[in-house]
Design goal:
The radius of gyration is 20 Å and the shape is globular. It is mainly β. The strands form five sheets. The protein has a five-stranded antiparallel β-sheet, with no helix packed on it. The chain contains two helices and 19 strands. The chain has one domain (11-302): Methanol Dehydrogenase, Chain A, CATH 2.140.10.10.
């Protein structure tokens, strides 16, 4: 058994010395993440929040079973040094483990040995108040990984080195907007939904180009003027209607036989406990259903 211990004499002083990016080595033989691999993941990999697009959360591996689980012992341990609740599943791609921690850090580890390969630490604004300073994981696509940050940015990192490939502002954290979810990547599009319902924000889901961070589309979960369902809101209440899509989206695929192409549905669970759907025909994403919720009931319509 190989165990590692990290001594933190002064956590605050140590964190102050860490750069935004600290790399020991680069990953030599990183396996690019493709649409086919995400749709049909290899048994030994865990590349999505719940492993598969439809959120099964099930591993087909059977080497560990009810007859031998009692014999398990630790192989290695690793301390992140971050004193907050860790909510991200370890993301595994062919022997490389990516761990997202609170305070917007990402650590690349050798899954077999626990050795650190590189570490990314985001420098957060001094005036940022983190109600939930957590991160729920990183999305993978080709040779990049994607982190949603509590100062309301999406950051693309080079998976081999941890260096920043692009950094895109999503909303304004000074207005109660922040991100904690693991981005979902589908066919080269990075989808995230914002947190902040407790601050009275207007919920949304936005898609970015995975290569360069360009915004492709954005839809709000609370309908504005002229959108179906807006009539259920009084005055300007829709501007602060909540409906934040703070959990990672899942994806359901069905065949639309009449049109002879796939009809994709993206499902976001909202703080309102309703569901929002986004439809995609081929590679062109367009908006689907927007949710409108009031204390007396709910309505939703196609946009």
């Amino acid at each position: 058994m190989r165990t590692r211990y990290w001594v933190w004499g002064s956590l605050a002083a140590t964190l102050a010395l860490w750069p935004a990016f600290a790399a020991a080595i680069e990953i030599a033989n990183y396996t690019p993440v493709t649409a086919d691999r995400l749709t049909n993941p290899e048994p030994g990999n865990w590349m999505l929040y719940r492993r598969t697009y439809d959120g099964q959360g099930y591993s087909p591996l059977d080497k560990i079973n009810t007859s031998n689980v009692k014999n398990l012992v630790p192989a290695w341990t690793y301390s992140t040094g971050v004193l907050e609740g860790h909510e991200a599943p370890p993301i595994i791609n062919n022997g490389i483990m990516f761990v997202a921690t609170p305070q917007n850090q990402v650590i690349a580890l050798d899954a077999k040995t626990g050795d650190q390969i590189w570490r990314y630490k985001r420098e957060l604004p001094d005036d940022l108040t983190q109600l939930h300073p957590t991160s729920r994981g990183v999305g993978l696509w080709q040779d990049k990984l994607y982190l949603a940050t509590t100062d309301d940015h999406v950051v693309a990192l080079d998976a081999k080195s941890g260096k920043v490939a692009w950094d895109q502002k999503v909303q304004d954290y000074r207005k109660g907007q922040y991100l904690t979810l693991m981005p979902l990547v589908v066919n080269g599009k990075v989808l995230v939904g914002g947190s902040g319902g407790e601050y009275g924000i207007r919920g949304y889901v936005v898609a970015y180009d995975a290569n360069d961070g360009k915004e492709l589309w954005r839809t709000f979960t609370i309908p504005g003027p002229g959108e179906p369902g807006n009539e259920t809101w009084q005055g300007d209440d829709w501007k602060n209607g909540g409906g934040s899509a703070w959990m990672t989206l899942s994806r359901e695929i069905k065949f639309a036989m009449f049109a002879k192409f796939h009809d994709l549905q993206f499902r976001a669970y909202l703080t309102t406990s309703w569901m929002v759907y986004f439809r995609s025909c081929n590679t062109r994403l367009r908006h689907g259903h927007a949710v409108s919720v009031r204390a007396t009931g709910a309505s939703y319509g196609t946009t």
